Amino acid sequence: MEPSEKLETPVTTIREIGQHEGQTVTLRGWLYNLRESGKLLFPIFRDGSGVIQGVVAKNAVSPDLFDSIKGLTQESSVIVTGKVRADKRAPGGYEMDVTDAQVVQRVNPDDPYPISPKEHGVDFLMEHRHLWLRSPRQAAILRVRAEIIKAARDYFDDRGFTLTDPPILTPAACEGTTTLFPVDYFDEQAYLTQSGQLYIEATAMALGKVYSFGPTFRAEKSKTRRHLTEFWMVEPEVAFATLDDLMTLAEEFITFIVKRCLEKRRPELETIGRDLSQLEKIATPFPRISYDEAVQMLQEGHAKGLVENKFEWGGDFGSPDETYVSSQFDRPVMVHRYPAAIKAFYMEPDPQRPEFALCVDVLAPEGYGEIIGGSQRIGSYDLLLKRIHEHELPEDAFKWYLDLRKFGGVPHAGFGMGIERAVAWICGLEHVRETIPFPRTLHRLYP
RNA sequence: UCCUCAGUAGCUCAAUGGCAGAGCAUCCGGCUGUUAACCGGAGGGUUGUAGGUUCGAGUCCUACCUGAGGAGCCA
């Protein structure tokens, strides 16, 4: 800005307006709503940091200013100047007596802002997701999401982990092609990654403790409140770690993130309407139960009539099963040692009972289901090769992965946490589609 | 892929087989403390699509389309 253009009043944000009580300041933002009562106007402004009500009395301002505010339509962009006044009637504690306003762009009333301050259906809101993000609730969710991501990265960065980014474009199928999005890669078949795990096993052998944070793609035809086709995962991988080390890492990691959100994003969580007492219970240690114990819990639940279906030992838990098991605890529960037959090919068998895998799922409370899945990885070259054959996977594609066991194989373990499921749980949301700015689901690629 | 539900004004929803309605939004008017403000008025419709039954279909039947929730699968 040139010195000659310097504004006479300080430009501030609604978040910081309390520091300017009694002063005249300038805000830059949008009209959120306009109420009027005769010769009084109550324009409500938002600027991305908060919401504040302005007051314009007809006998206190010029006719031009009064008319230009009176003519403002919802979401018109505007630069307003006024005197900040504390008022106990105001939700944020402050109001602004407007003394000047410059309309940057007035929304045409013939084509008004589609999202009125009334109720709307999900499909309509999703069709206007690019505008829906302006609502206070959606903005608050995105701030909590950003805090969760920052907390996750801080947790690992401060504990000797190195961020290593796995590729997003990957060659031939790793765990079967049915759930992969195919991409034409210069006339060669490539796929969007469905997990960075195999690659960060390689970087873990190079750097010791690593993590990745990036997008993941699954072409599953799932239409539930827990599924997106494009979602973000944070995945740590640790050389020489065992399953027990991994479970300790997972519970400390989740507790750290929840505490950080309570510390830094309490106003946003309150805007969303989260029951904070549920989050304040989250502390280490988390309960650790084996698959066998979980199955017993489900069968007892069925006998009491609390679980609809009788669970057969050997199967994987369905969503209602996970909800029941997690409902028995007031914090996330870690279920470990599933039958190897229902788990991924790369998981280390339990040396005590080789038919079980050294793996763990972390189930969030309040019915949010699995937010973390992890395991100790196979350390032996011969066993891994055997598993690749058993799963009828192309050995050539895994040559590099086998090399990790050929050249100094060690016990190692890691997990993946789905960011959107963590955000949905911490915010107490009904659906993961509100946890990401532009969700991709089975039936939505727009906007 | 399967099960259930839904599609009527820009939005949210009503309408026993018998004239297509309301609230919000938009426009006009009123109100000096409104809190999703309120009060009065105006404009706004190919009832998802195609057939069928009927004197008459938004409503009943058939097929299809679109979407939502759930199952499976998964984080």
- Our measurement of the CA-to-CA distance between the termini, rounded to an integer number of angstroms, reads 35 Å
Q: Which CATH C-level class of the largest domain is it?
A: Alpha Beta
Could you state the oligomeric state of the chains shown? single chain
- Proper CATH architecture of the largest domain: 2-Layer Sandwich
The CATH topology of the largest domain corresponds to BirA Bifunctional Protein, domain 2
Order of strands, widest sheet: 6-10-11-16-15-14-13-12
Number of contiguous helices: 13
* β-sheet strand percentage: 15-25%
Structural class: alpha+beta
Gyration radius, in Å: 27 Å
How would the global form be characterised? elongated
Question: Could you please describe the fold and organization of this structure?
Answer:
The strands form 3 sheets. An 8-stranded mixed sheet has the order 6-10-11-16-15-14-13-12, sandwiched between helices. Strands 1-2-3-5-4 form a 5-stranded mixed β-barrel. It has 13 helices and 16 strands. It has 2 domains: 3-105, Nucleic acid-binding proteins (OB fold (Dihydrolipoamide Acetyltransferase, E2P), Beta Barrel); 130-435, BirA Bifunctional Protein, domain 2 (2-Layer Sandwich). Residues 1-5 have low confidence and may be disordered. The radius of gyration is 27 Å and the shape is elongated. By secondary structure, the protein is an alpha+beta fold. The two termini are 35 Å apart. The chain binds one RNA strand of 75 nucleotides through strand 1, strand 2, strand 3, helix 2 and strand 15.
